[in-house]
Write a structure and sequence with these properties.
With 391 residues, the chain is of the alpha+beta class. It has 3 domains: 5-138, no CATH class; 171-291, 2-Layer Sandwich (Alpha-Beta Plaits); 300-390, PucR C-terminal helix-turn-helix domain (Arc Repressor Mutant, subunit A). Helix content is 64%, strand content 7%. It has helices at 5-30, 32-35, 39-61, 70-74, 80-84, 87-108, 113-155, 159-168, 190-199, 233-239, 261-274, 291-296, 300-317, 319-330, 335-342, 346-360, 367-390, and strands at 177-183, 202-209, 212-219, 249-251, 285-286. A hairpin with a 2-residue loop joins strand 2 and strand 3 (212-219). Helix 1 packs antiparallel against helix 3, helix 3 (39-61) packs across helix 6 (87-108) and helix 6 (87-108) packs antiparallel against helix 7. It is rod-shaped. The N and C termini lie far apart (112 Å). Belongs to the CdaR family. Residues 321-377 form the PucR C-terminal helix-turn-helix domain. InterPro entries: CdaR-like_regulators (IPR051448), CdaR_GGDEF (IPR041522), PucR_C-HTH_dom (IPR025736), PucR_C-HTH_sf (IPR042070). This is PucR family transcriptional regulator.
Amino acid sequence: MARTKEATLEWLKSISGELATTTLKRLDELLPWYRSMPASRRSSVGLVAQAGITSFVSWYKNPKSQPWVAADVFGVAPRELLRSISLQETLQLIRVVVQVVEDRVVQEDESLREAVLLYSREIAFSAADVYARAAEARGLWDARLEALVVDSILSGEHEEELASRIAALGWRAGGSVAALIGVATEPVDQDGLRRIARKNSADVLIGVHGNRLIVVIGRIEHETPNEAELPSFMKIAESLDSYFGTGPMVLGPEVASVAEANRSAKAALAGFAVVKTWQKAARPINAEDLLAERSLAGDMLAKQTLVENIYRPLSQNSPELLETLSAYLDTGRSLESTARELFVHPNTVRYRLKRISEIIGWDATGSREAFVLQVAMVLGAMSETEIRKRK
């Protein structure tokens, strides 16, 4: 004779303790990860298993109400439990609980088979939903933290907190870093950016400021045994080109670590502000190629770089080289006019220009480089005047 629903409910309640004990024993037998857990975590998992059994009884009483929602089942355990066991392990736990219930309950009352199957399906989907929500919340938190880290890099503030914040994001790059700035697309394909970076043995931090997309690129040097095989930052920037909107892209100089990323970001920002003044600028372009424009816009770092890398090496090497470069630029890059002004042979001018190029790495015979050198000479002369005034 079949039981009434009320009688079945009373029977299920009476064996719930037995089911919980059997479930814990079965978990220990079947799941290695459960056996290896500390006692406190095992206790939490046990609470979840018992809550699952109790929820089945409540669900059977009224399938249309949902007091057993997975969030409530997991609510009996500490929040850390969701972080310590994976979705796969959670589904294994549910499978064991359902199997115990099925073996004991269906064997006694065949009419409950369908109820057990429906319950197992619903709670499995709900468990997946709990983990999906947790992942979404984690993703939103990571996005906010990443935006905060990029802001800190741009402003140069909170440098002492930068390392811990970056570690919380799972930053894997321990090598050199460079900042890349361009126009943001709508929306920004951050997954695509990260995928291309990984292919180039790099990690990225991504931030959007108004219409600007800031990408801090870090090398993961340990992934490539031979450091020479690592792609340059310019190569990585070129591979990310399609993820930026229409407009210029400026790559800051390479720095030793993410702790110094502010220097690269400041240079890139300064370059981005002036890059449109050079109509033939490449995309992407190095911020160092825009030193002249940045200097004219008031960038003190660019001014200092030009003086220290161009003017000072020449003035300290030979006054003749400095004099030759100044005369060559002032005469419109004419060898003959420079030679007449200095009372030397044109071949002497050629030799000195070659020496200048060897010392500073810039070729005065090119129109673009001549412009940069002209700005450097003016800045150098101004700095010399300031030094003499102080004396």
